[in-house]
Each structure stands twice: as structure tokens, then as C-alpha cells.
Design goal:
The structure holds two protein chains of two kinds.
Chain A (H helix, E strand, L loop, with lengths): L2 E4 L2 E4 L14 H10 L6 H17 L5 H6 L5 H7 L4 H8 L10
Antiparallel strand pairs in A: 1-2
Chain B lengths: L15 H4 L3 E6 L4 H16 L3 E6 L29 H4 L4 H15 L5 H10 L3 E5 H6 L13 E3 L1 H7 L4 E4 L1
Parallel strand pairs in B: 1-2, 1-5, 2-3, 3-4
Helix pairs in contact in B: 2-5
Classes of the chains: A mainly alpha, B alpha/beta.
Chain lengths: ~100, ~170
């Protein structure tokens, strides 16, 4: 797995650029990752990203978009506004987690 | 092997430009529970990938957007060899009810929503729902009878026009 430098530190990523070591992540890095894909993190963004981190820690897998809505309490419509086009993947990337595997 | 690099960092290609302009049209023509899901799941997946998605409900597929039936679609093993049950069993009283409950339970266990909630999610994700004019006329139904997020009752040619250049799925 390649090592890349983001926010002045070295992190392990897969060939697409997703972090492979969730423990290398902190919110400063999340902000830098978001900036790489053109997202300026606000409070609403953080609410979603923190849910992803907590849910991943508890469940061992990245939550799907539906789960962020149902269990995280953030409406689907808002997620599409905060993380346009591909919210599930973009959130996973910013949160330093693997892409979600679930179909729905 | 570990490779070290300085800038630029590896950034995923979320393909925003590539998916812009990509369209998917799904024609839902079946009203059974098992045949409602493929279209819904694929529509949801396409929307999550930033693909403009339109669903057209026609013939039996109308049951998916008819307020009276959308929450009560059924599954029957009758005439479906893929259940691997003796076909004679399929016609017994109560079998459809039993098979429907079982399928609903399996779907719910995967945290996949029921049809009305699934449509709601698709609309919240930016999906477009259209009802078929001929099916509405045949069944004497108007927009009043349909799920409120259906954008309109349109003709087949209107749908073809709206989905110009789209990839198309007939289910």
C-alpha cells in the first residue's frame, strides 16, 4: 500500500487514495482530506463525519448512506447537499474509512 | 512494496465530470414484491453514484406507486421455480401470505426499507418518479391516487423524450 503525505504527515492509503489505517485519522486530517475533494467542512459536515467514525468504531464497517440517515439522523437530502454527487464515498474518504459495502 | 512520495497526494477520482450527463431510465412493469426491489435498489445505487435517474411505472408496476397497494405488494412462489418448492404447494391457501411475510422479513433484516420508504429515499436522493398515462387511464386512476412524490402522469413518448441519451433498464 502506498504512503502519501497529507496535511504535512504521512498516511497509508489504498490505490484510490482512501486511508487504510483508520487510526491514522484525526479531525485535522479530515479537514485536509475534505479540502482535497473541494469540500469546506462546516458543522453539518462534521456531524455526518463524526457519526461515520463512531459507527465504524462500533460496527466495524462504514455505514451506508441509508444508515447515516436512519441511525445518524441526517436526512438523505442534506447529505446530497453537503457531499454532492457521491455522498457515501465522499464521506468515507473524509472520515478516513473504507468505502461502504452495503447495497442500500 | 511501500512507495514514498511527496506531493501530489493520491486523491480518489470521484468522477464528477464523468457521471455528469450520465442518465439512467428504469421502467418498472411488475407489481410483485420480489420484482419491485431490483428497480429500487438499482435506482438508489445509481443516485448514490451521482447518476440522474428516472423511474417509469407502467402496467403492474403501477402498484408500486398506487397509495392503496404500494405498502402491500405480495410475493408468491406459484409459478416461480426459483423458490425450489413443489409447484403444487404454491396454490395452497395462505402460501402467498406466508411467502410474503418471509420475504419482507429477510429484506428488513438487511435494513432495506419497505417500498414506500424506499421511494421516499430515492426522491430525497434526487430521483424522478413518473407514472404511465395508459396505465392510469386503464385503471381509472389520477394523480390523487398516486404516491405524492410522483412528478406526473406522462405518456410513453414523453418518457422517452425525457430520458434521451439514458441507459435503460426494463424490469
Amino acid at each position: 500500500m502506498p504512503v502519501t503525505t497529507i496535511d504535512g504527515r504521512q498516511v497509508h492509503v489504498n490505490e484510490e487514495g482512501f486511508l487504510t489505517e483508520p487510526s491514522e485519522w484525526d479531525e485535522g486530517l479530515g479537514k485536509a482530506l475534505a479540502a482535497q475533494i473541494g469540500i469546506d467542512m462546516g458543522d453539518e459536515h462534521w456531524k455526518a463525519i463524526r457519526f461515520l467514525r463512531e459507527d465504524f468504531a462500533a460496527q466495524g464497517e462504514t455505514p451506508t448512506l441509508r444508515r447515516v440517515t436512519v441511525a445518524g439522523g441526517i436526512p438523505t437530502k442534506a447529505l446530497f447537499q453537503l457531499f454532492p454527487q457521491k455522498p457515501a464515498k465522499k464521506m468515507a474518504y473524509i472520515a478516513g474509512l473504507p468505502k461502504p459495502h452495503g447495497c442500500v | 512494496m511501500t512507495s514514498m512520495d511527496t506531493a501530489p497526494a493520491i486523491v480518489p477520482d470521484f468522477g464528477n465530470e464523468a457521471s455528469e450527463g450520465r442518465k439512467l431510465a428504469i421502467i418498472c412493469s411488475k407489481g410483485s414484491l420480489d420484482m419491485a426491489y431490483p428497480g429500487l435498489i438499482l435506482a438508489n445505487a445509481a443516485l448514490g453514484e451521482g447518476v440522474e435517474t428516472h423511474l417509469f411505472f407502467t402496467f403492474w408496476g403501477f402498484d408500486m406507486i398506487n397509495k392503496k397497494t404500494m405498502g402491500d405488494l405480495k410475493f408468491t412462489p406459484l409459478g416461480n421455480p426459483a423458490t425450489h418448492m413443489p409447484q403444487g404447494l404454491g396454490g395452497l391457501p395462505g402460501i402467498t401470505h406466508m411467502a410474503t411475510s418471509k420475504l419482507k422479513k429477510s429484506i428488513a433484516e438487511l435494513d432495506v426499507p419497505e417500498v414506500p420508504e424506499f421511494l421516499e429515499q430515492i426522491v430525497a436522493s434526487g430521483g424522478h418518479l413518473w407514472a404511465c398515462r395508459m396505465s392510469a387511464d386503464m385503471n381509472h386512476l389520477t394523480e390523487e391516487d398516486l404516491y405524492e412524490e410522483v412528478e406526473g402522469i406522462i405518456s410513453a413518448s414523453d418518457f422517452i423524450e425525457k430520458t434521451e441519451g439514458a441507459q435503460l433498464l426494463f424490469i
